[in-house]
Amino acid sequence: MTNGPHAAADPIAILATGSYLPEQIVGNDEVAHTTGVSDEWIVRKTGIHERRHAAPHEATSDLAAHAGRRALEQAGIRPHDLSYIVVATSTPDQPQPATAAVVQHLLGAAGAAAFDVNSVCSGFVCALTVTERLLRAEPGAHGLVIGADIYSRILDHTDRKTAILFGDGAGAAVLGPSPSGHGMLGTSLLTRGDQHELIGVPAGGSRRPASARTLEEGAHHFRMDGRGVRAFVQENLPAAVAELLARTGLPAGSVDHFVPHQANAVMIGEVWPALGLDNAALHLELARYGNTGAASIAITLDEIHRRGLLAEDDVVLLSGFGGGMSVGSTLLSWAPTAHAAAPRVLAAAAS
Q1: Rounded to the nearest 10 degrees, what angle do helices 265-275 and 226-248 cross at?
Q2: In what order do the strands lie in the sheet with 315-322?
Q3: Is 121 a catalytic residue?
Q4: Between 296 and which of 63, 167, 193, 262 could a Cys-Cys bridge form, CB atoms 3.0 to 4.6 Å apart?
Q5: Catalytic-role residue among 142, 182, 261, 305
Q6: Per-block average pLDDT, block size 10, for the chain (351 residues)?
Q7: Separation of alpha carbons 237 and 227, rounded Å
Q8: Closest by alpha carbon to 94, among 210, 207, 234, 199?
Q9: Does pTM top 0.85 for this prediction?
Q10: Catalytic residue at 283?
């Protein structure tokens, strides 16, 4: 699924960003102890030094609401002025209702339609795409897109393939019309369902309902074929990026910033040369936060925005990849946004 530039007078743009990281920092020594590896091994294999874990009282909707509130405050938009809230997550509060409905309630955004998108770690890009389409059909409307995940609740903390990688967090973006003419230029979404078994949680759904046996087998834990995922990314991400650039008519050299899903610094380093983005700044925040699932791109975008690294008219490429298997990329011409001089507030101050 791909679209190119459109001729709307006011394209849809990201107007503000926000993020939220739980207070608890989990360093590599703690993870190494439960997985039987070392801090040095984790850093060498992933580039990760620490990650955040949600507090026992925090659910995905809580993290999402904190991040959404930060983005709305930066945009100067009231919750009840939102038309849509779209939450990308693969770790919802519960199977139903949608986590977005809880977020709507927590924010007091009573007039917003709210629903979830589950495309695992590509979810934030998918949610951006869906929301942009909706807003194009409703001139003057605004939407809130949130990526949020609590992977610490579905990990086998003795499994070194997964426990060393994942953390918890949420990131958000406010979307709306951009009179400046800058905004979303195009999106490419790809799914390879023939490789869906590379990533997943085997039990807890309609195929394998929860039972004493699934609990005993540990089938409710997140599982991943790391080598298979690496091969999928190397095969599909460069082609997807090249296709999107070709369809939008932009040369690779025009990209100023590349914000990928924060999966694994070593894996991203391996695929980076094949992308041909020689003039782009590669932004990685996973050393401090780990892989935060659908939240990772949004958290990183908020980090660099609040540091003042994004200037009007910069070309920004966001690329997510993950379970399904899926790849989602979107190109933006960065629009004038609310100045973000203040740093993102962590859990202790973001009540």
Answers
A1: 30
A2: 2-3, 183-191, 326-333, 315-322, 257-260, 281-282
A3: yes
A4: 262
A5: 261
A6: 51 97 97 96 97 98 98 97 98 97 98 97 97 95 98 96 97 95 94 96 94 94 94 96 96 97 96 96 97 98 97 96 95 80 43 30
A7: 15
A8: 210
A9: yes
A10: no
